[in-house]
Amino acid sequence: MRHKYPPIESYNTGFLSVDSGHELYWEESGNPKGLPVIFLHGGPGSGTEPNHRSYFDPKVYRIVLMDQRGCGKSKPFSSLKENTTWHLVKDIESLREHLNIAQWVVFGGSWGSTLSLAYAETHPDKTLGLIIRGIFLGRPKELRWFYQFGAHHLFPDQWEKYIDPIPPNERGDLLHAFYRRLTSKDEAERRFAASAWSAWEGATLKLIFDPELFLQFTEDAHADALARIECHYFVNNCFFKTDNWLIEHVAPLRNIPAVIVQGRYDIVCPMESAWDLHKAWPEAIFEIIKDAGHAASEPGITDALVRATDEMAIALSDRF
């Protein structure tokens, strides 16, 4: 079984100014002359971490990480202004141009898989390959499953904590009930809602509960950005014009090498979505991890992702 590469430091960092006052943190690590790859983090609203560099062979890859609008080191923190899927797609392309990268591999999990697909379908000519994990297609039925009705059958104890900030008479539409509180001027109300929202996600990420990961998700600043930005996207259907937008626009990806990795017991993003994508895009390699949930840090998923990046580098060895 493969493990992540040893930790490395970034060799280049900066902030990219885009519209509406947003400044996006970015960094580069690995081989400055290697195969470029952009890592797209989850959430939306989660941010990047140093360990995200370690999915890639640093001798082979030019590794680019970027904190999306409103999260991580990007500024202003937790901002919802002009923060949509299509602003993020534009930001990724702006960063590619800023770094003078002609084409790159796109790598993302969870919300990062959503954004990877949206970017690649918009800019297939700039996408050398795709590696995506824990597939989320931004469809209403996926949101309903996790935030309204479905996942609570498996985690009734954690569900009661999740809905605690919402009065019983508002629980028929939990997304909008949370959104009212996460955008409230009442700081205590906002903090309580953000903590409950993020704790629900942190408690359900792995096949086996991980207390350290749970604490990371419930840290105040992380919870605020994650909950606010996620809920903002979700009440707006991830800013897609149709319920099945990503699958409807998958055709431009057919000739791009791609790997889809999915945990069999993923509660946050159930395998049905990955399966639907696989059926619409059979050219992509599809790997089901039999003993994993949602988190990239689960051993089987880590193994599949590292193998995928190594094999992608070999397949694209004539391109860099």
Helical proportion?
25-40%
Mean pLDDT: 97
Which parts are unreliable, with pLDDT below 50 for 5 consecutive residues or more? none
Quaternary organisation of the protein chains? single chain
Structural class: alpha/beta
Determine Rg (CA atoms, Å).
19 Å
**How would you characterize the largest beta sheet?**
8 strands, mixed
Give me the side-by-side strand order of the main sheet. 1-2-4-3-5-6-7-8
How many separate helices?
11
Q: Please write the string of helix (H) and strand (E) elements.
A: EEEEHEHEHHHHHHHEHEH
Q: CA-to-CA gap between the ends?
A: 28 Å
- Shape verdict: globular
**Beta content:** 15-25%
Number of strands: 8
3D architecture notes:
- It is a single chain.
- The longest helix has 18 residues.
- Strands 1-2-4-3-5-6-7-8 form an eight-stranded mixed sheet, with helices on both faces.
- α4 runs antiparallel to α6 and α6 runs antiparallel to α7.
- It starts with 11 loop residues before the first strand and ends in a 5-residue tail after the last helix.
- The protein has 320 residues and is an alpha/beta fold.
- It is built from eleven helices and eight strands.
- The mean pLDDT is 97.
